[in-house]
Amino acid sequence: MRCAPTGARGKAVPALGDDDGMTVRGGLVAFGMVGLLGTGTLAGCANSATPQQTATTTAPPTTTSHPGVAVPDVIGLKIAAAKWDLAAAGLHPMGLNAPCNKGTLASESVVSALAIPGRPPDVRVGDVPLSPGTQVAPGTRVGITWSGCYGGSTTAPGVIGFPFSVAVHTLHMAGLTWACYSVGRATKTTAQSARGVLSQNPPAGTVLPPGTPVSFTMRDCPQ
Questions:
Q1: To which H or E segment does residue 218 belong?
Q2: Residues of 165-202 as b/e, b for ≥16 C-beta within 10 angstroms?
Q3: What pairing do the DSSP bridges indicate for beta strands 92-95 and 207-208?
Q4: Is the predicted pLDDT of residue 131 greater than 80, yes or no?
Q5: Is the pLDDT of residue 180 over 50?
Q6: Is the pTM of this model over 0.85?
Q7: Helix-, strand-, coil-residue percentages of the chain, each rounded to 5
């Protein structure tokens, strides 16, 4: 179907064809149809030739984020306590050096530093320092640098009244050293405990660095 352009409302401009005689023979029909239909038909003809456009939207890509794990503060903790806290947070603790343990809690090393380990075989090469509170992925390996023996602090035990050998052993188990001083013959105030420790300094319950000497007195310290 060929569409003719329109002029004034209700009037049509004849379409130009290849054969001018067609206008004479079909003029009445062509002009009559255009006159009746008016510009609406032509507009519809024009609209039918225009392709319809459909609006499309693109959804943004979705990403799945995994919550991080805060590295617990285990600096200064003993071996078992540090490993427990890291494992409870969903992390994998591993030593960057060998901890010290002489059979007593006081003798154990404590955590002195944390790091993301390097690649095997030597995980200490290329390790990255790690601060407590840092967010890491669950299951991250956390390297521990242990202190020497008797890390952290210890508490002075009470040894008054103990025999010499028991007092020395008790202080050793607490990670402390000792010094014994003889005071000679017993007095009225020391007669009841003449065979044991008479006094000590620092007193029991004092928090001390490991290796601190605790002095005590006896009537006669063994030679």
A1: strand 213-218
A2: eebbebbebbbbebeeeeeeeeeeebeebeebbbebee
A3: unpaired
A4: yes
A5: yes
A6: no
A7: 20, 20, 55
